[in-house]
Amino acid sequence: MTDEKKTSPAAVFLAWLVVAIPAAWGVYNTALNAAKLFR
Fold it and tell me: Organism's domain of life (predicted)?
């Protein structure tokens, strides 16, 4: 049997925020720039 350490849910949430916020910002800016092509 192995002793596995559990990652705290707060740490997982924080890690997702670190990834999701810049990704959402990039998607938002890409959508704005793509919209300019169709005007």
Answer: Bacteria
Half-sphere exposure at residue 20, Cβ-oriented, CA atoms within 13 angstroms: 6
| C-alpha–C-alpha distance, residues 28 and 39, integer Å | 17
DSSP state of 38: T
1 vs 28, more confident:
28
Tell me how far apart the alpha carbons of residues 25 and 23 are, in angstroms, rounded to a whole number: 5
Measured distance CA(14)–CA(20) in Å, rounded: 10
